[in-house]
User: What shape does this take?
Amino acid sequence: MSEHILVEREGGLLTLRLNRADKKNALTRAMYSQMAEVLDAANADRSVRVVLITGGPECFTSGNDVADFLQAPPTGMDSPVFQFMRALFDFEKPVVAAVAGPAVGIGTTLLLHCDLVYVSRDAKLRTPFVNLGLCPEFGSSLLLPQLLGPARAAEVLLLGETFTGAQAAEWGIAGAALEDGPSTLAKAREMALRFLDLAPSAVADSKRLMRAPGREQLRKVIEEEGALFGQRLRSPEAIEALSAFMQRRKPDFSKIGRAHV
Ligand code: COA
Assistant: This one.
């Protein structure tokens, strides 16, 4: 078990809290594996009625651990990150997210697969896949253009533009933007607890109906993105961009020929 994921129970509410503050809650393979295990067990456990995912009041997550991307990149659908996202994608009960501070890469993508999302107004969401020589993942190339429209989605996905929690709420990624981290956590918890008074099968049936349209297309897109993402992770462009992050310098793509990407 990773000490970087805290699991708390409060009656039927299960909270998954990312707890790796020194690395801005960057997600390692061990963290993905633990979250996948917890989600699969919670899905099967009738006493769990709702899951809350948070990184605490200051930082949601800086996304996939960049050192892991370089040293142990995901190799296929059995990889821990895929296991986690599959568990989230297939989760039958409501999932609530509370986001404050940075939500980078998969930290933004995973919100598209949650049911209720609350953000602090000044949260900073970003999907810098292209900036890292990569491509969108886990359905973001389909879901973000659907939510934001093609032009805004291009700013976010092609340029890696940062957007705020306030914008995320305006664009429909989040249900509401709150004053700060603590009020965001409190709102998310309050809304999650409301599920405990509702009929669980009615909630699950309704979630399934809401997610059914486009689900097969989404599954296909996720597979296509996953295959390309895996290839791109081994590309000279990605290796340059990821190494540059680790070395705290700007990447230089000028010497990488098109034929070699
Ligand atoms: N993977 C591994 N380490 C990471 C990380 C990541 N995704 N994000 C941050 N860290 C580490 C930094 O290297 C630094 O480590 P150090 O103290 O040992 O040098 C520490 O976490 C703090 O990060 P820092 O960049 O100094 O914090 P900040 O407040 O200035 O910026 C972020 C926070 C999240 C905006 C910035 O860290 C960032 O952009 N991270 C990378 C995000 C990313 O590209 N993720 C992959 C997406 S696919």
